[in-house]
Amino acid sequence: SADHYATLAPARILDTRATSPLGPNATRRVMIFGAGGVPASHVGAVVMNVTGVGPTDGTYLTVFPSGSPPTASNVNLLPGEIRPNLVTVPLASDGSVEIYNAQGNTNVVLDVVGYYDDGTAPTDHGFKPLSPSRILDTRTTGALGRGEQRTVPIAGHGGVPPTGAVAVVLNVTATEASTGTFLTVFPQSPRPTTSNLNVPPATDIPNMVVAALAPDGSVQLYNDQGTVDVIFDVVGWFGP
Fold it and tell me: Is the dihedral of CA 176, 178, 184, 185 positive or negative?
């Protein structure tokens, strides 16, 4: 049977700032089964926002099924910066992944947003790609302020059907931030303690986001600090 995607409310399952950073040429194992709403079995792959935080040297991070390191990178980091990337990674047979850091010391944050099951769940949903379509551009409607949370209608826009969609895939771009901030996209309150984009001042930062929809077909967009403009380009949706 085919793998299908299941959405989750974003959940933080690793933050090495609370434990210890990864050192140079270091690998750390993270159990995914049973974490952040992921079931304890029948999961083939997980979708996570992987954020590198404050490396002491230029480095890269790779997330992979435990025991199967690839010759690839998921996040490339400059010294001192905070950079996220959305990653889909298969799980090892025990339900874990490993994170590899190449150089220096760096902290890593993992926020899980969904998973691909083995096709046995009754709530399976397949992916429907769309031609990219812009459904939000706050440069024409007004920037988000500090601590502002805004409702963004998704269903019925940009090719997403008015009913039936449970999640969308968005390219989210932050631009013209007045100060360093982060953005979070989530279905409905309460706001999760996760982030999708970490934004330096006056820099354009994009990231792919898989966002679960609220029952009314909308998402919430939160900005933490200063003012920032945000662009949503929808590229696909999940549904029956």
Answer: negative
DSSP 141-205: T--B-TT-EEEEE-TTSTT--SSS--EEEEEEEEE--SS-EEEEEESSSSPPS--SEEE-TT--E
Burial of 187 (0-12, 13-18, 19+ CB in 10 A): buried
Say how many Å lie between the first and final Cα of the chain, rounded: 15
Assign residue 88 a region (left: φ > 0; alpha: ψ between -120 and 50; beta: otherwise).
beta
Residues 11-48 pLDDT 10s: 999 999 999 999 999 999 999 999 999 999 989 899 99
What pLDDT was estimated at residue 1? 38
